Amino acid sequence: MTMKFRILKSMIKQGFVGMWRNRMMSLASIGSVTSALMILGMVLILILNINNVTNMTKEQFDEIHIYLKEDITDEQINTIEDEIQNYEGVLSVVFQSKEQALEIMKNRWGEESDLLNGLEENPFPQSYIIQLEDIKYADNVVSNLEGLSGIDKIKYFKDIVKRIISVSNVIKSGSLIVIGILMLISIFIISNTIKITVAARKKEINIMKYVGATNGYIRGPFIIEGILLGTIGSALAVILVDVAYQYIYKILNNRLYVFVTSYMVPSDDIFIDVVIIFMTIGIGIGILGSIISLRRFLRV
Amino acid sequence: MIIFKNIIKEYNNGVKALNNINLHISKGEFVFVVGSSGAGKSTLIKLLLKEVEPTSGKLFFNKKDITKVKNRKVPIIRRKIGVVFQDFRLLPNKTVYENVAFAKEIIGASAKEIRRQVPIVLSMVGLSKKANSYPNQLSGGEKQRVSIARAIVNNPTVLIADEPTGNLDPETAGDIMDLIMQINRRGTTVIMATHAKDIVDSMQRRVIALSKGKVVRDDQRGVYDHEV
Description:
The complex is a heterodimer. By secondary structure, chain A is of the alpha+beta class.
């Protein structure tokens, strides 16, 4: 146990020495990891907030409004209502008569509602307002409704949600590509940095080989160097992203855009997640970078 | 303990470095390997160290065919073989003591073991007083002693010396040979590749002569060159 610990300790020390020995390359490596993760952070926060907004506003969108045809019979109206009640995910079905619709419109128009008094006949159709348990049932219910006779128009707000989702999907996939490229660049830079350390210690490695050091023992310090580069890069990214987010949050709050910040995820809620994600990716990039350089340049 | 059986080594560039080598080296033997540059001495040593793989043939070390050993197990074999090079290959930023201790650290020896064994080996090679010197403060002979100390500190069964006296003046070379002989007397098999005719001739040991990748001579009490 103590032996393993001692070896680990000397490997960590060598990792630091290696990093310090080529400071410029190390800096470049750290910078590339940080920038990749910062962009990831921004996208992550953006997506989290979009999700948050969609969740918070979803309740307003889980209604389906169906307008009935003028010539519909009472019998048909009843069958429609019974039918709808049986659909999965339907919370309630409320009938709205021509008069009620007119009344609602008058209320909405307020002072200008006088204009509506001049109408010769009520232009509003009879309608049903269907409340869904969840917006995910909307598509199914709508497709069922389309099979019913006596329905003129179906209006629901899934379209808006859909648009939000598709916008966030575009952002997601677009940024995924950018992040992927940046990560590849990071891996490349790290592997080059470690290549330099390997070259600097070529003689030592050669001797280690002849004396019978295991591959793990020889590779250890380089992998640790990679881990260190990744860790420092991701720690920097965590700090920068967190500071930036808190700053934006504060500015919006101070300018009384409370309606904006009320839709935003507080930074404390996502801090731990960001730390975990960044550290995992940062360390992963570091390990990958060193393994690549070792594979090619450390045939032992 | 070391058996070369029909060993052929052809490098990727088409050079046939070894052409059907058959050798048997017993435990505790002292063997010179002689031959001009390019005769195949280095390849022979590299095969033992698992630095290169033979194109065909078998190579037994301690009754085990090491041509079939997995990469992961190579370090285990190397720990049983000590190597000394012409150019010493010491780490310039480590002291004599650290250079020798390094070989033990690598195989995971405890601090206690290192503290016990490194001074013993250093006194054996006559460098106790130089333990804290750095390689650039040492003479060529002293450097080679350090490299020998490093080679034997893990108690190898075989010591391979690749031109160990090549960079030394004759007198110092003699001292180094005495040291290698002393190691051999303690039971370590020694395989020494060399160009040093006078050393080979004076030692009266087994001589394996290589030429163009073939064993052209294998005498139990040989000299460097018959013809001359």
